[in-house]
Amino acid sequence: MSTTGDELAGIVDLFGALTRPQLTDALAELAFKQGEEVDSDAIEAAIATALADYVLVEYDPPDDGTERERADPLLAAGPAAFPTLPEYGEDLPHILDYEQRAVDRDRLAEQVRERLDAEAEAAIDNGASERAAALHDISYDLEAWGSVEVDGIRASLAALLPGG
Q: What's the pTM value of the predicted model, to 2 decimals?
């Protein structure tokens, strides 16, 4: 089964946030419903690409005081996502017994801003102009999506861009 990053974001968005194993299970359920084979390597590659492209982002929810351990980070739809549901995606909440998670958008936006800042610094330190260009574009998405200020990050990335 092949899937796009936006479809991954759509699936995650149905539940608010999912762990990677939950997302993988959801994709396996969809493959079954569609009569397709599950390609674990393709699923892992799609998730990795979606994370690298800010279509999916990791979310660290606030401590709710229950002291439960979360071995797997939560994944949420990110600033570069246009969440769409794949065929039969709307059935997933009825098939899977996953809790609906509320995502604190302000907290998530700040976490994504911190990640963008760290990745921008690494791109600048390594002279990675292609990555800097991608992060520069993502900075606009992040401002619109999360209402966070990233002008300083964008300005530092601009120095690596052609004409910058």
A: 0.91
Distance of CA 45 to the CA centre of its chain: 13
Mean pLDDT, consecutive 10-residue stretches, the chain (164 aa), reads: 91 97 95 89 94 97 64 91 95 94 96 98 94 96 95 94 77
Give the bridge partners for 58, in sequence order.
Answer: 75
- Answer whether 107's CB lies under 8 Å from 52's CB: no
Beta strands in 46-143 (DSSP E): 56-59, 74-77
Strand ordering across the sheet containing 74-77 = 18-19, 74-77, 56-59
Please tell me whether residue 48 adopts helix, strand or coil conformation.
helix
Pairing of β 56-59 and β 74-77: antiparallel
Give the residue among 91, 159, 84, 100 at the shortest CA–CA distance from 128: 159
